[in-house]
Every structure is written in structure tokens, then in C-alpha cells.
Amino acid sequence: MSQPDAQSWLDDLPAAFHTYLNGRRLDEVECIVPDLNGMSRGKAMPLSKFSPDSPVFLPISIFYQTITGQDVEMDIENQWAESDMALVPDMSTAMAVPWAKQPALQIIHDLQDLQGNPIACAPRNVLKRVIALYAEKGWKPIVAPELEFYLTKPNIDPNEPIEPPVGRSGRSGTSLQSYSMTAIDEYGPVIDTIYEYAEAAGLHIDSVIQEDGAGQVEFNLTHGDPLWLADQVFYFKRIIKEAALKNGMFATFMAKPMRDQPGSAMHVHQSVVDIDSGRNIFSDDDGNATDLFRYFIGGTQKHMREVMPFIAPNVNSYRRFESEANSSAPTNIGWGYDNRATGLRVPNSGAQDRRLENRVIGVDANPYLAIAASLICGYLGMINRVEPDAPAESELDEEQEARSYIPMTFDEALRIFEGAEEIHQALGEGFCQLYAAVKSEEMRLFHREISPWERQHLLLNV
């Protein structure tokens, strides 16, 4: 492809990208896809080798790998593992790579087989499948994610505990500083770099706050289309990690990186609008909550345990739910009005903004799969008219806790997921089998490890 031809599609890129380019020559194009864990995979190539009309190819076996890089053997009919996938660029996702030394462009690609059919196990396609189910009913889901994460000292030796970072004062944070502006200013250079990168990429941050933990920050994104918001979370995780590295820190999206600090969530606010009218179907003409809103809550309560492997997808995810030391994570799927003691919260809002906040999702989740899983729970509730429990007005009592518990280990979550027939049918049976196999192998690999705790307390004492 010649440079003049390349220029023709470059002209259609967003204004933010041309501002970033600032007359420089584009050097490289990154063709990326999110894997099962929400990490980017793909190919980078010189501009001269890229064309929006010419797909590139990757083996589908990238979806058969655990977080450790181990391959998982599958025994599914018509297994895809030996075939290539075609990566088809979604040019609406094209944006700058602000941390690159030379001007670079990154583009999220859709995945198809060689006949043009969507790859069922691609996370972006799983979310598209759920959005299509809503569309068949004349509905459009709307979401707004909130990302919590930690800035930390660089952790070079994985045998050593993770520690809070050193800020501009020269001190390492240890105490809880929720909503502190001073704490945000302490890490000002990193925050400034994140804003700088986001502006160059054409992304927008709604607000930033200091969360409970030492070095824990939260970014809130504006509400909108679930696919675009999942793309933004995917991009923001790259941006935040790179901004931290530029400033001599790590940024981690582990659910519970430090034992005595709170875990990190990805709270997701969810509403549904009528496609034709744009009206929020959770409110009636008088501004009252509708039956559909009640059923959405009921379905979320009914199915939340079944989708835990998507919203708490790692062994470490379940450490966030421990009730000891500084944990603000919900340990239930109860619901209530403006009640942060419940896993499902109805925030104060006007009728058009009526929504349900899912507070159980961990920030370590793949955003495409977590949003798809949360939305499919509510969808099944509306379709099947599932009634919710009574709203909790404060802390849940013992009976409510027992009725609305969430799995406290990854092993238990995987066992529950195995029998979730409605969820498997909605998300795709082959995909769910593959996902369960990959996560079960990760669980097996974890159980093989000997932890520092075991070496410290058992080596000479048993």
C-alpha cells in the first residue's frame, strides 16, 4: 500500500489523533485484540504494511492460553485451535499510542473466521452477542464504569510484598485517605501523565478521586454504549500502566494487591433505554420504577453467583471479599437504595437516570466479559420476570446474608458456573466451556505453588 493511499484513510481519523500527530509522519500501526484476561495481543507493523481493507491473521489458539501462558487442551467438537483468525479493524476505535517514541496508531480489531463469521470465543464478540439480545427486544443498555487501581513502588521481586509508592513528599503512603485532595496531589505527576495520554488518545475522564487505600485511585468514565465503554476501559488500563512506568511506579489492576489495604473494584452503573424513543425503560411516565427495573434487579440477584468467574476471574479476586482489615467490598448480592452495604445499589437519581450499580465486579476483570455477564443477568431477569428480594435498608441481617451470599473462593465459583445452563446458552456454550477450561487450569496451577506463608510457618514448625 502506498503512502498516498494510506493518507486517504488517515484523513478520516479523529481530530485528537491529528492534534497528537502534529504534522509528524505516522510510523507504526498496532493491530490489537483483547484476550480472555482483557490484555492486548496482536501485531505491530509499519504504516506502509497496513490497510483497513486488508485483514491480518492470528492463530485462534491465543484464546487457549492461561494467564501464565500455558496452553489448554480442549475436546470440543469443531475445535478452532488449529485455524487462523482474521483481524478486521474497527476504525472507530483508532487512536494514538501516546507513550510510543515515534508516532503510532492503535486499533482494536474484530475477529472472524476465514468465512467471515464472528469468532465466538472473542470477548468483544461475546459482548456484542449480549447487546444484540437487547436489540431484539428494542432495548439498548447503557453503562458507566468506575475504575479503581493502585499505584505502587516497582515490585521487581514477586516474592516480596507490594508496597505503596513514594509521592512528591518523599514519603510512602500507608494510611487510609479516602477522597483526600492532598493524597491525589501526592501523585500529581502520574495523574497529569494519565490526563495527557488520555487527551492525546481522544478519551475523556469524568472525575478522579483518591480511594480508601494507600496509593489507590479511582477514575470514573462517562456513561454510554457498553461496547465503547469496554473499549475505553481496555485502552485506559494500557494508558494508566504506561503513565505509571513513565513516573517510576507500577500501576496494578489486581483485585487485592496488598493484604492490609482495600481491594479494587470496577463498579458498573447500568440502565436500559428504548431504542426508538430513548426513554429509560426503568422509569414510567410518572417517574416511578417499572416492573422491568424490578425484574432486572431480580435477574441480577438470581444469576450473579453463576457469572462470578467473569466478574471475579482470578484466584486473587476473592481476597477482595474478605471481611477483615479495611475491606469495603460487598460480600452479598443484596440490593438497596443508596446502600453501599449491598452488592447491588440503586443510586439517588432522576427518573431518566434510574440505574443499578453492580459493586461486586473486580477491576481485574476483562471489561468486555464483565459487562456482558452483568448485563445478561439483568436481561434474563426481564425476560423471565424474576422478582428480587426486598431492598435492604442498612446492613444485611444473618438471614439476608445467607440468602444472598457470593462464592468466597474461585473453586466454588467455577463449580457454580459449570451448572449455569441459561448463562451458557446466552453467552454461547462453546465459549463457556473454553473459558471454564482455561480458568480451571489456572486454578490447578495456583494450587501447585508453595506460598511464602507456607514456607514461613510450616517449614520448621510441623
UniProtKB/TrEMBL annotation:
Residues 123-462 form the GS catalytic domain. Belongs to the glutamine synthetase family. This is Glutamine synthetase. Keywords: Ligase, Magnesium. It holds the Pfam family Gln-synt_C. Its cofactor is Mg(2+). SMART domains: Gln-synt_C (SM01230). It comes from Microbulbifer harenosus. InterPro entries: Gln_synt_N_sf (IPR036651), Gln_synth/guanido_kin_cat_dom (IPR014746), Gln_synth_cat_dom (IPR008146), Gln_synth_gly_rich_site (IPR027303).
